[in-house]
Write a structure and sequence with these properties.
Helices cover 5% and strands 50% of the residues. The chain is mainly β. The protein is elongated, with a radius of gyration of 26 Å.
Length: 458
């Protein structure tokens, strides 16, 4: 039985046959209804954005009957726009009485939104507090869910954001604190599954999602643009992203030029770099670069399975205080490779991880399993490097590098590696101690490597 409340859009003239323009009828339901906008089974044609002005109309929510209720957006802009007036923070003392009384807990539940215009979006949030988006399907749009200007306390869960020409969940020039993105399927979105640009973000949890194939390959008729499943760009003036958890997701793709699974870009030396990040317990794989950190500070990458890259599993450049611990780096299919590279980075730790390249002739990228280039103060501790080609570890122009308690070995019967370890270029105070080095070792005297208690060929 359909709900009989005043917000049932059919009671205000909506037809829901996919042909008749239902925009005016839905607006009438907002103006005269009870605040809970209900879409019974049907296909509702929209030609303009449905505005949901919380401060003017009071608490509002939109809901449908899961896959049976569909909005077809035939015009540009979002199908649904929630407009609030919260100018405070997440602190309850900043929540104004009028905002609490009239704007609390808006949301969208159990609704399909599909684009029929090149610039159609799904849901847009502006000035809201404590929004919940749950159980929606956003498809064939530009951006599925877009947050702009200022929002607080956002929950996005149990939704499918699928095959859109822009971004799945887009934090676009937004000041946002407290957002949870969990239990979703974010896939085949051309410019990223989750993308943050020109924004100031705090307290973002990305947990338990399947985030995959968000690149241009599913949109062959559109221009190619390098992107990532999770893309964070804080290089614009005034933007910063801190206090972030990426945990327990599958983050996968197909290799694309300039593509990554997770990419974090920051300007080195800025006052508020993207510190306080954890990337933990994920399965990440099948891209040109699996995880790319540029100009970053204070990030932990731990407990992940990171597999199958065209260039690098993990690429860290111009960064500092990065802790890479307890990860498994490997290839999954013959056409891909494996390897980690640190460039111009300082105060980093690589520990308790396993690196393995089982290919008979190495990998197409020509990368060693771990490469350190022009780095300073890097600790490599308790790792296994198996079958690296050309080397297990390759260090060039580095100082204060300490490699200890590691196993480096080539297991192939027909040896193809040049060696298990190489130090080259100018360096100072490098240390190589208590390792098992079961293969050739090359050490340039200019690298200033101090050796003790190693086992193997030295």
């Amino acid at each position: 039985m359909l709900p009989t409340g005043m917000s049932n859009v059919r009671h205000f003239g909506a037809v829901g046959d996919g042909e008749v323009d239902d925009t005016a009828a839905i607006r009438h339901a907002i103006d005269e209804g009870d605040g809970v906008l209900f879409f019974p089974r049907g296909n509702y044609r929209l030609t303009e954005t449905i505005e949901l002005p919380l401060g003017e109309r009071g608490p509002m929510a939109v809901r449908g009957e899961a896959g049976a209720s569909c909005l077809f957006m035939h015009g540009p802009g979002p199908a649904l726009r929630f407009q609030g007036n919260h100018g405070g923070t997440g602190d309850p003392w900043t929540l104004q009485p009028a905002v609490w009384e009239r704007e609390r807990l808006p949301g969208v539940r159990h609704l399909v939104i599909e684009g029929r215009h090149a610039e159609a979006d799904g849901v847009e949030l502006d000035g809201t507090m404590q929004v919940i988006i749950e159980g929606i399907l956003a498809r064939r749009l530009r951006h599925g869910i877009r947050l702009v200007r200022r929002n607080r306390n956002v929950l996005i869960s149990h939704s499918h954001v699928y095959h859109n020409t822009g971004v799945g969940v887009f934090l676009d020039g937004v000041n946002l604190h407290q957002i949870n993105v969990s239990g979703n399927h974010l896939s085949y979105n051309r410019l990223g599954g989750i993308r943050i640009e020109r924004s100031e973000v705090r307290n973002l949890q990305i947990t338990g999602n399947d985030i995959e194939y968000n690149n241009t390959k599913a949109h062959a008729d559109l221009p190619v643009e390098a992107t990532a499943e999770i893309y964070v760009d804080t290089t614009a003036s005034g933007s910063s992203v801190n206090e972030i958890t990426i945990a327990s997701n599958t983050i996968q793709a197909t290799g694309t030029a300039g593509g990554a699974n997770v990419r974090i870009l920051e300007k080195p030396g800025t006052d508020r770099p993207p510190g306080l990040w954890t990337i933990s317990g994920n399965v990440i794989g099948s891209q040109e670069i699996n995880v790319h950190l540029s100009g970053c500070y204070g990030i932990v990458v731990s407990g992940n399975t990171i597999y199958s890259c065209l260039k690098r599993n993990l690429w860290i450049e111009d960064s500092r205080q990065i802790n890479v611990t307890g990860n498994h780096f490997r290839r999954h299919t013959p056409q891909y490779g494996t390897g980690v590279r640190l460039e111009r980075s300082t105060d980093c730790i690589v520990s308790s991880s396993q690196f393995h390249d089982e290919a008979a002739a190495g990998q197409a990228s020509g990368a060693s399993l771990l490469e350190l280039e022009a780095c300073r103060r890097v600790t490599v501790l308790g790792c296994q490097f198996l079958d690296g080609v050309p080397y297990g570890i390759d260090v060039n122009r580095c100082s204060d590098v300490r490699i200890s308690d590691c196993l480096l070995v080539e297991q192939r019967e027909s040896k193809v590696a040049r060696g298990v370890l190489r130090f080259r270029g100018e360096g100072e105070r490098n240390v190589l101690g208590s390792n098992s080095l079961l293969g050739a070792v090359e050490i340039d005297e200019r690298a200033d490597v101090r050796r003790y208690e190693n086992v193997g060929f030295l």
